[in-house]
Amino acid sequence: MNEPVYETALGASSLDKITLLGQDLAHDVMGKVGFGELSFWLATQRRPTPGETRVFEAVLAALADHGFTPTAIVTRLTYLSAPDSIQGALAAGLLGGGSRFLGVTEDCGRFLHEVLASAGDLPTDDAGWDALALETVRAKRKAREFIPGLGHHVHKQGDPRTPRLLEIAAEEGLVGPHLALFTAIGRVHPQVLGKTLPLNGAGVCGAALADLGLPLELLRGFALLARTAGLIGQLAEELRHPVGNDIFLAVDLNNRPVEPDPYTP
Amino acid sequence: MNEPVYETALGASSLDKITLLGQDLAHDVMGKVGFGELSFWLATQRRPTPGETRVFEAVLAALADHGFTPTAIVTRLTYLSAPDSIQGALAAGLLGGGSRFLGVTEDCGRFLHEVLASAGDLPTDDAGWDALALETVRAKRKAREFIPGLGHHVHKQGDPRTPRLLEIAAEEGLVGPHLALFTAIGRVHPQVLGKTLPLNGAGVCGAALADLGLPLELLRGFALLARTAGLIGQLAEELRHPVGNDIFLAVDLNNRPVEPDPYTP
Amino acid sequence: MNEPVYETALGASSLDKITLLGQDLAHDVMGKVGFGELSFWLATQRRPTPGETRVFEAVLAALADHGFTPTAIVTRLTYLSAPDSIQGALAAGLLGGGSRFLGVTEDCGRFLHEVLASAGDLPTDDAGWDALALETVRAKRKAREFIPGLGHHVHKQGDPRTPRLLEIAAEEGLVGPHLALFTAIGRVHPQVLGKTLPLNGAGVCGAALADLGLPLELLRGFALLARTAGLIGQLAEELRHPVGNDIFLAVDLNNRPVEPDPYTP
Amino acid sequence: MNEPVYETALGASSLDKITLLGQDLAHDVMGKVGFGELSFWLATQRRPTPGETRVFEAVLAALADHGFTPTAIVTRLTYLSAPDSIQGALAAGLLGGGSRFLGVTEDCGRFLHEVLASAGDLPTDDAGWDALALETVRAKRKAREFIPGLGHHVHKQGDPRTPRLLEIAAEEGLVGPHLALFTAIGRVHPQVLGKTLPLNGAGVCGAALADLGLPLELLRGFALLARTAGLIGQLAEELRHPVGNDIFLAVDLNNRPVEPDPYTP
After folding, report:
1. Which of D92, D97, D98 lies closest to A95 in CB terms?
2. Same domain flag for C230 and C168
């Protein structure tokens, strides 16, 4: 077997130089490229514009921390149990970034993309987007499926992140077809569903990331990146004002042993 | 038992508002706070200055990706084996962020901090720093211990990240005692060790993070945050130009079965 | 809000007693219940018969270790990088237990279950099973889908685990409908596919676990339990005869930097 | 560079054969080797005796599940948040297997081993063990350190697992120096500490594993193996009688936003 060679455009080192994405790391990246900008660049191998960076960082801010979510609780409890391993506490928290809690961002981005991909020529005005959105909502209704990004268990009258992210994207000239379709769904769905649901923040983030041209397979990854910063915040707070042991005891002291319930398939 | 209450200054929501760190998330954070800045703020609950943010982001850039490290290989192999779970591939990679590969940043920051904490009044000029550094290097030599942050297996004649980070910190007026001591160690160690070793990038990053006043217990966490962005880059590249299966086969096809070697304590 | 109560039939403690699954742990479990038997009991809340335990442990043996799989490599590399955290090395390896490498066991068990659930009255003789299998293989062929558990990249002429597990199940009177259908697929598929593929070990394990009445949602979990034992074996070998660093260097020294390849959606 | 070769005595495959630990997997392992026995064999590359297997499996039973521990809560919350990834839920739970909750087993085994290694000739009767134990307890007292394995927050008058495991080890003729020293510590510590503390179950498990000749570096690994079976039990119960969402809500609904508390080093 020939010895394999592994190509990469990411980090590389020689005796006196380190490159990252083809750049001189020390001179052209450090001190010159912000962390959000660099994260975008690493994921796409192209440097984002300042406007793209601003929208991207607004998305990361929107997803960084939502208080005592399962992922935050998990990171705190894992730190309580294994304080010797910060990496374990962060990794455990990220493992909750799956289909239910952090997945909406990716689900919404992918869903909008599929609709757009099968739509042929894209609309050029609001009326056109409304027509496409109406068709989309009706199809989902008929299939008895939820629309990713629609509805929120707390922000029932509107998620404040949604108009704000649309505003930022508009300021930067970055409202593309995903955001346009998502917005139109927000306008037309009451006609079909008979009630008005909010466009939620996780969903609008997915639409914005898709409009930025980020890989759809990794939209969940950006939610996880944002959450990593949030989980470090949770750990920092836990170190100084711990609640992990109280959470553990509140569960353990309220346990009630019951008889086994034999499983049958 | 009284019902417990869990206090947090991080994310919180009500019907029509979301706060983060006491700020209105939509209006005062999204579109106004960069991702590096926000990460710093989450970890310290205080907003960094632009200079602090610049140094912090330079550190994150320095640590984001170092090519085919064990963590990068692990993320690619985990994705190969379980492509259904991006969060699992990222978490697996982060779990390699332990004492050997990503730990130097934290080890160096903590080490410098301990020396400073036990040093009494801090030096006020280079001669003073050199004297403290000399004493420190001699003590480590006597204890036959390595000095965290000194030496590099590739950049034997100098790690290009080190002078660059010092330069950025100097530009921002953020060269504090940790960087001062680290730099002095770089000047004086040849007198004691009889050879000149480079101050490595991971070490200078730890010194800079400590000078920024970030929690020492979480210095490894910032290396992991940087690496999360890098691992997303690795996954993005793996999706388009995969090498994971080649790596797996290069190992598996070169396996050689041997007889068991019974363990005795 | 009323204080919640959390019910469990698993472990519980009081001042002088520990129960597990309603048993006195010290007197009725320790020294009397093997580890395979206990694992089955924990998952189903019913104690398996000796025959069920034997089939279950045969499955665990079949899945415990397959040499230098991605999961094994990942555990060794994570230990190399973070030797301070055994739990991190094991967790990282398990994260590779996803759809591609360890998933066949679950996929096959679920697939067979779905066919059986929609088949109405089950066959009572080989001819009947062959007819159901033929219908099943034809339907998959028509849908251009693979049949889980059919085919193996190494054991092209037959996976030695398959006849052995069937033999053990037959000895214990535990060949149920999943194994019957799987065996019949092995007999009839050449008629449809025009070539003979082996019934693989991961697949027959899934069929056997399903016949044992274990929860289908957790079939992957049993593969992960078996693999945990295997990964501890990998770590034990790595501690004494390390190869992790050689694997890392074989990749890192064969890296070739290339220019970035900007992503477009 | 010469192509590297990776040696292993664990799993290996050829066209028509699979070996594990030098055995024919299908014919000599499946159906003949229990799961506890195999786990021991994988870790030591030697087959345990039936007596060793019984003690080992008693240890695994003692450590498998302790109800709503942080690891169990973490697995349930991770499943709640990411039900698409069983491997993620298990891995997250295992990441809590660190120094505080599951670490006592390893800490105790290592501690006893160090005492024995520095003790010279080992005692041959109870009086001799008591003398060594007294010296050991006094040294720890003087150093103001805890003795691993001594004390329990619930079983203040004695942990029922401890006498039972000693009984099983005695029945199998497997009370070695680690258990002898641990028992002696139980007898003599009140003389030094002025109060009687129980020898806890995690500690006696560590002593027993060390007496079995298992690698000290991996004692935590066996606790994790046991816990993997327990966590599968937790997931199986969560699937049928979920409490994860109640736990999450009990925390989230009791959150109280507070003002940021800026960190100073």
Report:
1. D92
2. no
